[in-house]
Amino acid sequence: MTRRMKITLGAIAAVALSTAAIASEASPDAVEFTDDGVAVSLTGVAGDPAAGAEAFKSRKLGNCLACHANTDMSKELFHGDVGPSLDGVASRWEEPMLRAIVVNSKAVFTDETVMPGFYSLNVGQHVAKDFVGKTILTAQQVEDVVAYLGTLKE
Amino acid sequence: MKRLLIAGVVMAAAFAGSGPVWADPVDDTLEIDGTPIITRAKAPEGHPFDEVYSGWLFREAETRDAERDSIENPGMIAVEDGEVLWNKVEGTAGKSCASCHGDAAESMKGIGASFPKWDADSNKPINVELQINKCRTEQMGAEPLAFNKGGQQELTSYIKHQSLGMPVQIDLTQGDMQAWWEKGKDLYYTRTGQLNLACASCHEVAMGKYIRADHLSQGQVNGFPTYRLKSGLTSLHQRFRGCIRDTRAEQPKAFSDELMALETYVTWRGTGLSVETPSVRQ
What we know:
The complex is a heterodimer.
Chain A: H1 3-24, H2 49-57, H3 89-92, H4 95-108, H5 139-149
Helix pairs in contact in A: 2-5, 4-5
Chain B: H1 2-15, E1 30-32, E2 35-37, E3 40-42, E4 51-53, H2 61-68, H3 76-86, H4 97-101, H5 104-107, H6 111-114, E5 117-119, E6 124-126, H7 128-140, H8 152-161, H9 177-188, H10 199-205, E7 210-211, E8 214-215, E9 226-228, E10 232-234, H11 236-246, H12 257-269, E11 280-281
Parallel strand pairs in B: 9-11
Antiparallel strand pairs in B: 1-2, 3-4, 5-6, 7-8, 9-10
Helix pairs in contact in B: 3-8, 9-12
């Protein structure tokens, strides 16, 4: 199968599944954390690493490079170092833990953790009206980012 | 060979894409037209840091050089404009600032290093912008200047510039200044917005690190109004509001109780640093 066909079939599958996916999407308050992280996909739809890479890069979405260096994106200028480098991150954490950290790192580490919760409504005071009740990423964008992080192996 | 390879990878990681590798404040000294500027000072008692650093130490060499030379400093235009306003008669009393205060080089010396101060009339701290408005309404019979309008930033820059080089030292013993300091401290550590960040998240916990291309300083205010190379002359409350907006929170109003408390607390956090107004930042 060519790469293009795969993508097309994947897109068709995603469209076909979308109704079911919305029905089974976990709301931010219902995400279940265990010692291993968040084991269950937030949407039931496999994450797309390419879309995840875009969300990772985009300043309007994940903006992950603001705080994390990532050699896989060395063409992008200016990687931050507020958080650890994500090189080989998938060799350090299993998928459930990567998902948990993206969803709400404060639930994994401590309340003092600087990293925002990307699928959490446990947020700061006086949220601007355009963002009230909204998460930084959608459930599927979280799955996509987690799928992309899964490719960052040592 | 293996060691060489690893060194190569480290170098590549350092230069390809990543921010500069020198993350600490630079080892450099600042003198502006012969006036020595204190950019490092021992922190006051009760401060989270041992030493306070001017934001100047966190900027690139070209930016630092622009502040070193008052001809190069684009913020000095605001100071010159402010001098014109100082001498401009306005209001029903037919007075200018100079009518009562004379030569600003004498009368305003130290003002920029000691504000905010306690204002018994309003029972609140007062900053330079609000003191200008108080003079305008009570002495000059003129309208108060709206936030960032009517030359407010320029006049503030001119007045604060008269204290260039003087170490910041505010008096917390007057009135209820200590209570406002406490309130400002609470706000400094309060996370806001969808991004759930406090002032301290960037300027205390991550000080010295890079957020994308921006080297995080201690967030000192001794250079305000500042000239930002990307956005021009910027007042302190404008910067506070911009930072808070970037956490995706509603912005408090300029000169609101919240931001006056924050100004009081953050000014104290820079105790001992020289007034740099107008500083140059990125």
